[in-house]
Write a structure and sequence with these properties.
heterodimer; A: mainly beta; 4-stranded antiparallel β-sheet; B: mainly beta; 11 strands; 0% helix
Amino acid sequence: AQTVTQSQPEMSVQEAETVTLSCTYDTSESNYYLFWYKQPPSRQMILVIRQEAYKQQNATENRFSVNFQKAAKSFSLKISDSQLGDTAMYFCAFTNTNAGKSTFGDGTTLTVKP
Amino acid sequence: GAVVSQHPSRVICKSGTSVKIECRSLDFQATTMFWYRQFPKQSLMLMATSNEGSKATYEQGVEKDKFLINHASLTLSTLTVTSAHPEDSSFYICSATVREINTEAFFGQGTRLTVV
């Protein structure tokens, strides 16, 4: 079974600054996908970024980038130039390639302060 | 992008009654749909995996007779909470994966169920 750990229940950052959310996971699989999802107060789950485990290059999506360390089983999310709209709960998720089933971390509540 | 529509967004029902929640993939055929339950400020807890035309696979500890899942087509899965009780009050979310790309999940808007 896979486990996903987010060790930061809450974080805050000043607007326009950079923040990094941490995520570690445990699995015996070699091929899988990792995701970061954002859940704003509306509770709609929004995909922020995805990373294929077989790719060494870190994924980037505008202001969002990841630091994927496969050997260390670490998958952190960096948000640059933080905006007030980034305030949300962020979930790290591991997805089994075959089953498509996802395991979610406990989430990190991020508050961007003006 | 792929859109998943979940209905209703909010529902209040009386204790002992049943309530049905629908999850539809609007512009793609979903290989698999997943049902989650989420308590306030907590993570998503997978309840069951639903494949079209076959019985749902329930996670350990989830009562299959209480949470009935039907996946009659490639675009529709339903979750029926039978004989609802106040402890069933929660936020329920569905997600669907695309047949050709069985990894990224697309989420519905969620349903807030309140049992009174």
